[in-house]
Amino acid sequence: MKHAEALVSVRNASKRFGATQALEDVSVDFEVGRVHGLVGENGAGKSTLCKIVLGVHAPDGGSIRLEGSPLRLSSPAEGAALGLVGVAQELSLLPAMSVVDNVVLGTEEHWGPFVSERANRRRVETLIDEHGLEVPLDARAGSLSVADQQKVEILRALGRRSRLVVLDEPTARLASHEAAELLGTVRRLVERGVAVVYISHFLNEVLSVADTVTVMRDGRIVRTGPARLESHASLVEGMTGRHIGEVFPPKPPAPADDAPVVLRVDGLSATGAEFSDVSLQIRAGEILGLAGLVGAGRSEVAHAVYGSLAVASGSVEVCGHRLSGSVDDALANGVSLIPESRRDQGLMARRPVRDNTTLPYLRRFAGRLGIRAGREQEAASEACDDVGVRAESMLTPVAALSGGNQQKVLFARAVLGEPKLLIADEPTRGVDVGSKRAIYEALNRMARSGCAVLLVSSELEEVIGTCHRALVMRRGRIVAEHEGGDMTEASLLAAAFGPGDGTAEGRSQEPEAAAGEPR
Amino acid sequence: MMAQVLPAARRYGIAVVTVALFVLLAATTDGFLSQANFRNILDQQSALLIAASFATITMIAGGFDISAASVFVVAPLFALQVENATGNAGLALVVGVAVGLVVGAANGLVVTALKVNSFIATLATSFMVFGAGFLISDRSVLRASTDAYPAIARTRWWGITTGAWIAAGVVAVAWILLSRTRFGRQVYAVGGNAEAARLAGVHVARVKTIAFALAGTAAGLAGVVSSSRTLSALPSDDFSFVFGVIAAVVVGGTSIAGGEGAVWRTIAGAFFIALMINGFNLHQVDPIWQRVIQGAVILAAVSIDSWTQRRPT
Ligand SMILES: Nc1ncnc2c1ncn2[C@@H]1O[C@H](COP(=O)(O)OP(=O)(O)OP(=O)(O)O)[C@@H](O)[C@H]1O
Ligand SMILES: [Mg+2]
Known about the structure:
By secondary structure, chain A is α/β, with parallel strands linked by helices. Chain A contains 18 helices and 24 strands.
């Protein structure tokens, strides 16, 4: 490999937030025409490292150079003007504006003071063609699925004349074939001389796309080296400092045939076309996977069961009690939901971890003089410990937690609820390998204690590794059911794409080939 | 060093600044450190504190309520009509507060059920309420006809007027409500992320409506206390009261965007402004210049707040 020149060099950078040393003496080069993979546990400092390069945070110490000359950014806008752009881990689109407007935002084609709609449109169309990221141009960004929103974010970054593109967990929200396409896009980008920083918890993805990999732990760099010298196991060991066996703990025993049915859904249909005639049952202690492509209607079913989405017909019964279709009633009957988007549907970013964890269950801590602070604190920190939330204290605002730890706060909330039925919509999105295991173990513990679990997941490996049984949805209907050994990536994917879909076969192979990691 | 000091300064900045101003005035200003002066400040602030402590809650819930001025003006007109007619000051108090409750609840329902922006909705109701004030008072000043009505706010207990005691009580209730109860948590949740709150089982519309209703009630009480102190009430369409309320809330550091803030902040903000005005008066600064400086200080306070929140850390 010939020596590539460094576009951005970080030297001895450090960054502290309160008592957290997020970065300590970090030195790294991001090179022209190379994909630089960045891996590490939640809170290792990956996002922070990129944020100091992009001008979101100023480093406390150390220096950054752009092509050899010192770089001191005071805002992300300054970074963007120099061609340093990022796709943040959390989405930041303007929901009321169209896809085109979002993509060209700040770089609109114009004629004097007038925005040229047509030129903008053409530019976005070209971008989409070039990179194969299909999104409806005129849709309002807020009305798109999370996956499509992610694509718009990526298009926005690609549309700038960027020299360094930071992708912070870009595929966490994408379906497997979309992820594969994105990896292709990344390769095309670097061929054009762009430097790419690629952060992901999908280690196989990093191994297949990156030229260079940097492993981080506790704010420090463990090592930087060529990706071809690393393996899944070596990365995990570098990240965690220990050897982790399997990602998936052994499944709890499958429920007996006479185990009581906890959830019975009968002929559920949405008011729109999101899903129709969905029927399913989950027994106590059973983990049921709901697989399918993004947009197949899985999240909508989850919301309908939880009562947060109105339905046209059908019924939901929990432990023989028919739910009235309100969130209140669901909570009162022991149903918990971990929603798909932690930022939009899950967390109050500026409120403390404690408040975010206990919000639905405050009644439990009611005393004569309001909430019993001591008890609440105790319960919250117990639940957070249970799923391995790493936070300075229970009073830290969740916004100050790393992405994966924010996700774990939502899980802690569900654990606190001691539900009879847990609906988890992509619960391990953005969570590192070690903590994933902690979450799976928490899931298993809940199942062992008799909780029924509905797991909506786009990661096939996760469905296969944790569920007793899986249903596959396609275009709003349940099209297949697989159990035990019948659950294979091939069988689930085939059902998700459906027969007669000409592209299905070709595509279904692609993720494994390109991403290496079935998702 | 900075890393430790800055968050603390950010969190308690307004309290620190208020105390600093107090010390400065105590050191430099004759007549500031006197019981009479403090009593005076307390009396003058009581109505504002009553309204502002609950306005804080509305603002944290993500609402922007400017109807407090109209309620403040009109509730005592209703109260005094009742007092003049029946001679019953207790009943007058209840009626005045009830007017606030009705207006506040109506605001809440319009905002949540009709989904009208709360600034616009409360601007509209303000005009209606101001109008009702002219109607009920027949466009004239109303005066208290009994000794009991002035006694509501002017009676002294341990040297402090009942008006100030009422303010202290209302502030305490708002404080506890917001920081220690389920309702308070739900207020923060609704203002911070309404969709997340809904999915966590919070009745978003109910919480907002209650917040508006409470703010209206508090504004009604503030109006009665103020008229009891001044012995009369005058119909007008003067919005200045609510600007004082919002200034106190915002200077205290409660976020206009909702989701963040605290009652203690509003108290600090109110006293900061009150001390500043008191200092001007004692130094006999021209009232016209007072306004200019006051505006500049509010702008500075809010800018510093947003600067510390936004600058890269
Ligand atoms: N704005 C902030 N204020 C306070 N602490 C912060 C802030 N941003 C990050 N941190 C802390 O710095 C550490 C590093 O966070 P960072 O977001 O860089 O982790 P990460 O490696 O990207 O993790 P993840 O994989 O979960 O996204 C964490 O302990 C986090 O809590
Ligand atoms: Mg991160």
